[in-house]
Amino acid sequence: MSEAQITDWLASQKQAMIDLLRDVVNIDSGSYDKEGVDAVGARFERHFAEHGIPSRREANATFGDAIHAEVAKPGSNEKPVLLMGHRDTVFGKGEAGRRPFTITDGRAYGPGVADMKSGLVMNVFVATAFHKFGGNPHPIKLLITSDEEIGSPSSRPAIEREGRSARAVFNSEPGRPTGNVVTGRKGGIFMHLGITGKAAHSGANFAAGISAIGELAHKIVQIHALTDLDKGITLNVGLVSGGQSVNTTAPYAEGQIDLRYVDPADRARIMAAIEKIVATSYVPGTSATLTIKGEFVPVVQSAESKTLFENYQAAARQVGLTTLQGEFSGGCADSGFTAAVGTPTICGLGPVGGLAHTSEEYLEVDSIVPRAQALALAILRG
């Protein structure tokens, strides 16, 4: 096996990669759509079966099953390299039918085309290349998860378990629009704030009412005031609802809170401040509850992760990605879980794309092959 065999084969598979990407983009797989997410998983399982790569499912009753596959190195008891990614999207049922996979002027479009079905296709073909030609210095494991877009409530234990047992983690979230990869990310916590008040007729019996919406308004102002842009801390109440009717004081209200932070040490301080706001009744007689619905931890670059990035960067230069750098992202990802357990991790290795989570999401089609080749060379030199 030579490096050229791997990189030449990957170049020859561009259309096959596009065909697999079309298949999985054209399957709806919103995070809560277990049937759809599992259908995408089944399409990848079919690829593994066709190429003789062992795979298995880790079942989950609520969310999509985790898909595991492995390209072994015979006789090796070394820690594997982990190639990781998620197949769920933020889009609802019917989105793939409304705007199926298309390619226009060198860009591919469709729900999840960049975030991150193309990264999964890339991982699968890189693993297939090593299965076909050998030469991998370590075993290669693949993990295809199901619920990253909602904080990986079911997948986090598997991600942490596989991360702990790996020598390095490559998470193939989309490459940045700049062509860079991601070497640092914010942490994030997604929370539900529920407030109880008391209903009363807002004309005939106003004084007997206790407005949960009024209380929510006070709390939103206080929560937003915790934002500290200089430290990379942002608070956003992105969804609100409540009330019974326009002529009734609101007996209930709720808000969805998004917290992002950079420094792991800031988590406890900001959460304590939020909990104090939740416990304070600005409108007397109201009560409130706070529930964490999902959480990501930051990706903080360790010395070992920096070395891993430099090795990847050198591999990328060899295939013509000469300007590739590492950059920081305010978005969260599963790579934070593997970085937090101490495994060298880099993220954003997938094909280049942008405008994720919108109907304009796109993928640069010509980035698929060189990004796959760079990952393969990085594994060879790992």
From TrEMBL:
GO terms for molecular function: hydrolase activity; metal ion binding. Coiled coil: none annotated. Residues 183-285 form the Peptidase M20 dimerisation domain. Keywords: Hydrolase, Metal-binding, Zinc. The active site is at 88, 148 (proton acceptor). Its cofactor is Zn(2+). It comes from the Bacteria. This is M20 family peptidase.
